[in-house]
From TrEMBL, chains A, B:
GO terms for biological process: terpenoid biosynthetic process. InterPro entries: Isoprenoid_synthase_dom_sf (IPR008949), Polyprenyl_synt (IPR000092), Polyprenyl_synt_CS (IPR033749), Prenyl_diphosphate_synthase (IPR053378). The lineage of its organism: Bacteria, Pseudomonadati, Thermodesulfobacteriota, Desulfuromonadia, Desulfuromonadales. This is Twin-arginine translocation pathway signal. GO terms for molecular function: metal ion binding; prenyltransferase activity. It comes from the Bacteria. SUPFAM superfamilies: Terpenoid synthases. Keywords: Isoprene biosynthesis, Magnesium, Metal-binding, Transferase. Its cofactor is Mg(2+). GO terms for cellular component: cytoplasm. It comes from Desulfuromonas acetoxidans (strain DSM 684 / 11070). NCBIfam families: FPPsyn (NF045485).
Length: 297, 297
């Protein structure tokens, strides 16, 4: 397979589905809908939806069945970026080279656009569906997966510990592990698990993918931390060294650069090993994770 | 029935269920969980959960089956209050006589506590359940009801139009209707509909309660607007005349006080008429709505 073509075509599928799923920009109240569209269509890589689709493929499922959940996941991810960028949080003026939501629409609208994206994700996940393959039980389980991953025991919990850690003298490894497993790892894992569930995974397949999701999610995050030090600005989409400047709790800050690289490589090897039972069907997942890890080298 | 005892005992049931449902305050990260508890247990009337329970009773359902959804509704309501009070929104320092969430925990934690309460509501709604009466289809429908009522086509949509209208010279009736039907009416209606669904309503019962919910929700809001002018401060829990001072789009501002009173009374009469097919089982709903309307006189 040609990974570049694969990523491009999957990204297009997600973006078409998102365009059909979000309330139209012209719909009253337009200010709210424009702000939602602005951040959803601000040029994301659609990594989480693509991982969800690849996990579905890995168990021989039909990608059509995961598109609504893939859109919901991207809406949750986008809401988290809008709220993270707010003046009271990271106070960022730019995101992927564009002005952040509150810079364009004002703080109140940005808060509400984030709130609406999070809520609309659950509208999408619970909408009546024509699919005969996805029953109400599976849909409830997917809602449970995504809500847990996004909530206090997941992403929001990770975000608050991340903020607290910014003030620490020297964050310890347990804190960095907690932040990464929750702030970013939880949604990555939930994407892969939701893809498996909606693809009709059996228990063995679900467990293999869960193991892959945990290991790869952590490897991706260490790679991201490394990229903040070694990458170039274009690759990164933000200023080089910005984590260091902010005193962010990162792996290189706690473990040093070479130990971080060693750890990312080892976790990635273990993640690939977890995919062995899925044989060739997991090839897209393998190549996506190679691609994410190797951005940092 | 003695309404005061009824309201007290229902409120206690909701509060016990909430205490069991929210992640414990002592749980890591404590800052987040304390902020969530602070606003959830800040002395609300639990109007929406009590309406949900009363709608369930009105169709002969078992209240045990609505308690999780009643908690979820109160969590959504509480998140909306936390975000509404933020400096970028209404910038309120007090809520029910107590410092608002961001005054106690800071703005970043208040935003995240709101985000977490909204998300945890969907964790609760989609959690595995022992109830044999509530199947996964009904639970999916309840999630759909609550998410739609809280999202861009409901509460968040109403909130943004409310903010926009504060700047208007003279808001028109259509704008005031939109704000009230969405910002507050949608969650009231969804509470009543969820109670009906979870109580096992047939189509006729569901439609009667939906009609009641729409009419009563609007009547409650007009009564609230009137109370802002005629009530005393203790009854209101906020400063008298604060809507007027802010140039809020209210019914008295558009229709005048006496026409607003006439309209609230008429809507309330129609709401009670909608309950006729439910006979005696709807007595709690009738008395609750009398109580809400008559606070304003």
């Amino acid at each position: 397979m040609d990974l570049k073509n694969y990523l491009t075509s999957q990204r297009q599928r997600v973006e078409e589905a998102l365009a059909q799923t979000l309330p139209p920009k012209q719909q009253h109240p337009t200010q709210l809908h424009e702000a939602m569209h602005y951040s959803v269509f601000a040029g994301g890589k659609r990594l989480r939806p693509i991982l969800m689709m690849a996990a579905c493929e890995a168990v021989g499922g039909d990608i059509e069945n995961v598109l609504p959940a893939a859109c919901a996941m991207e809406m949750i991810h986008t809401y988290s970026l809008i709220h993270d960028d707010l003046p009271a949080m990271d106070d960022d003026d730019l995101r992927r080279g564009q002005p952040t939501n509150h810079k364009v629409f004002g703080e109140a609208t940005a808060i509400l656009a984030g709130d609406a994206l999070l809520t609309e994700a659950f509208v999408v996940l619970s909408a009546p569906s024509d699919s005969v393959q996805i029953n109400d039980r599976t849909r409830r389980e997917v809602i449970q997966l995504l809500a847990r991953a996004a909530g206090a025991a997941g992403m929001v919990g990770g975000q608050i510990v991340d903020m607290e850690a910014e003030g620490m003298e020297q964050p310890d490894l347990a804190t960095v592990d907690y932040i990464h497993a929750h702030k970013t790892g939880a949604l990555i894992l939930a994407s892969i698990r939701a893809g498996a569930l909606l693809g009709g995974a059996n228990t063995e397949q679900y467990e293999a993918l869960s193991r892959f999701g945990k290991l790869a999610g952590l490897a991706f995050q260490i790679a991201d931390d490394i990229l903040d030090i070694t990458g170039d600005q274009e690759q990164l989409g933000k200023d080089i060294g910005s984590d260091q400047e902010r005193g962010k709790a990162t792996y290189p800050a706690v473990l040093g650069l070479s130990e971080s690289i060693r750890r990312a490589t080892e976790l990635h090897q273990q993640a690939l090993k977890a995919l062995e039972p899925l044989a060739d069907a997991a090839e897209p997942l393998r190549q996506i994770s190679h691609y994410i890890i190797n951005r940092s080298s």
